Amino acid sequence: MKNIIINAAMEEVNLRGLRFTMQDLATRLKVSKRSLYENFSSKENLIDEMVDIILADMAQEEQKIYAGDAPVISKLEKLLTLHPYVAEMFNKNIYEDLRRLFPKQWEKVEASRAERQKHLQLLVEQGIQDGVLRPVNVNLVGQILKDAFDSFTSYSFLESNGLTYKKAMQELLDILFKGMLLK
Question: In terms of Cα–Cα distance, which of 162, 158, 82 is closest to 120?
């Protein structure tokens, strides 16, 4: 039953964002709110489990990329365009709501992002050592990517520029890897 509730909650998030109510969820599932609370002590507990699932899914996908035989540049592209399987969540100000309404869960997201950034910086360093990337300030690259991620998870930025998260990150990578100068 827990998985059914979580899946329905993901659908509610896609419809209403994190402002859905447990009554909305009960109505979707055609069960009583009591049935929900028998499985999750609170909406916060439900959101917590959803965040854990999404972060675990991301970590699993990242590990597949790191473990693969692809060149460093390809790994960077795949890692930086990877986002949760609930991709629609990027288009509903979920990050802003999570940060404001569920600070404990936001801390988990931030910790995951910080860990991901460390790994990306190590991959950039590997690219430099392998002679695939020219020597650059790796910490600066990490900060640029972090700031880009923050911008790209803002629906207003993406919408006003006609972009998806993946497309925005692909364009940023194109600029980073190829530069802006015509040759």
Answer: 82
Q: Which residue has the tokens 């998870």?
A: 153
Closest to 85 in 3D by CA, of 6, 146, 28: 6
CB 90 within 8 A of CB 183: no
Any residues with CB less than 8 A from the CB of 48 and at least 6 apart, and which?
A: 102, 104, 105, 108
Cα–Cα distance between 149 and 80 in angstroms, integer? 9
Q: What does the block give as tokens for 60?
A: 């699993």
Helices (H), 40-102: 43-67, 72-81, 94-101
Helix (H) or strand (E) holding 160: helix 155-160
Quick one: which H or E segment has residue 38? helix 33-39
- Indicate left, alpha or beta for 38 from its phi (over 0: left) and psi (-120 to 50: alpha): alpha
Token pair, residue 115, equals 């860990």
Positions of the chain with pLDDT under 50: 87-88, 90-91
For the segment 158-172, what is each residue's pLDDT rounded down to a tens digit?
788 888 777 888 888
What tens digit of pLDDT does each residue of 15-27 get? 888 889 999 999 9
Q: What is the CA radius of gyration of the chain?
A: 19
- The pLDDT, as a whole number, for residue 86 is 52
C-alpha to C-alpha distance for 176 and 17, rounded to whole angstroms: 33
